[in-house]
Description:
Elements: E1 7-13, E2 16-23, E3 32-36, H1 47-54, E4 59-63, H2 82-96, E5 101-106, H3 108-119, E6 124-130, H4 136-139, H5 149-157, H6 162-165, H7 171-175, H8 181-191, H9 219-232, H10 235-241, H11 244-250, E7 263-268, H12 279-284, H13 287-291, E8 295-301, H14 308-311, H15 313-324
Parallel strand pairs: 3-4, 3-5, 5-6, 6-7, 7-8
Antiparallel strand pairs: 1-2, 2-4
Amino acid sequence: MEGVxxxxxxxxxxxxxMHVAEAGPEVDAKGAVxxxxxxxxxxxxxxxxMDHLGARGYRCIAPDLRGYGGTTAPxxxxxxxxxxxxxxLVALLDTLGLAKxxxxxxxxxxxxxWYLCLFRPERVTALANTSVAFMRNIMIxxxxxxVNPIEYFNRAYGPNYYKCRFxxxxxxxxxxAPAHAKRLMRQMLCHCFSHGVxxxxxxxxHKYPTSPLPPWLxxxxxxxxxxxxxxxxxxGAINYYRNFDxxxxxxxxxxxxxxQVPTKYIVGDGDITYNFEGIQEYIHGGGFKEDVPLLDEVVxxxxxxxxxxxxxxxxxxxxxxxxxxxx
Length: 327
């Protein structure tokens, strides 16, 4: 870490209060970088990249997304659509007086970043997205043969697949109770979403009782995540999954739209998202470039898993920096 100070504030955007962490210069910056975290994460997942880019003159902005951390978690499931989240981000940029930003996303944050670039490309200078590629068929209702994402996941992976189990309000909450945050966060950050492991149906106390943390996570890091989810619970985070199908309906006007933003894509070869059926053929076979015409580079990091911005922090920070200095 290079010792850049992290500043915190809460701003009113789009009818909610949003906690925002910032680093780097507030004025006269080389540019502003908006970081979007995934599940089950916080702004804190970007601490290494904020440090790296902040020290190089970029204004770094990392909110807790709606439903997470210090940001409002509306009780209604319907308040977590891509329109709501993108609306939060556009309002945040307006509040901060930023006409355009670089965007960096991971996991759900990557999905939201794709939607942001589709809906409001004029607000994005360039995109460095990690983990989740642009996947039109699970993001946008398109064509007569379209299958809703949850139906697709159910057919492909069965009803016990975590995205399917998350659908019924109250069911997932029994497993993902705030009191279980310490165990759950340890299991998810250390053992899920990488190298063939999804999110186990049981996730009981006995599966990983004393496993050590990987070298890229400290006990202090884990405590930061755990303390937050003990306060908030996981319902807000899980509600994103409950809007998969709704997002497709809302995005139908963009059924044939392309992502017209300069883009770099970074993924670990062990990431679950890089091992979905057909995804590697799409990423490397021309389909991805067709959907994202300004795709500059695809970076696949050998041996890396899902939480790549923490697991391979320096490498990912370098890749992001090397990309955004072009603009």
